Amino acid sequence: MRALIAAAIGLAAALALVLTISAIGAPEGKTSPKPLLTTVPSAPGKITQAE
Fold first, then answer.
1. Measured CA angle at 15 (ends 11, 17), to 5 deg
2. CA distance linking residue 19 with residue 23, whole number of Å
3. Is the pLDDT of residue 17 over 70?
4. Distance CA 31, CA 51 (A)
5. Are 22 and 15 in contact (CB under 8 A)?
6. What CA–CA distance (Å, rounded) separates 4 from 10?
């Protein structure tokens, strides 16, 4: 019974946190117009030649 009560309290706290963050909303600001520069790793065991 104690475990059930503890789980209910934890669930209520998590729900309250989510609702609070949702009510506050997203922070103001802008995202960068430049895309992130990422590289795709080569397949394991594949030998690549440097140019």
1. 120
2. 6
3. yes
4. 34
5. no
6. 10
Largest CA distance in the chain: 67
| Rounded Cα–Cα distance for residues 17 and 24 (Å) | 11
Q: In which residue are the tokens 């520069």 written?
A: 37
Q: How far apart are the first and last CA of the chain?
A: 67
Q: CA geometry: angle at 49 spanning 40 and 38, to 5°?
A: 20
**DSSP single-letter state for residue 17:** H
Instruction: State if pTM tops 0.90.
Output: no
> Exposed/middle/buried for 35, CB within 10 Å: 0-12, 13-18, 19+?
exposed
Per-residue pLDDT at 9: 97
Helix ranges (H only) for the chain are 2-24
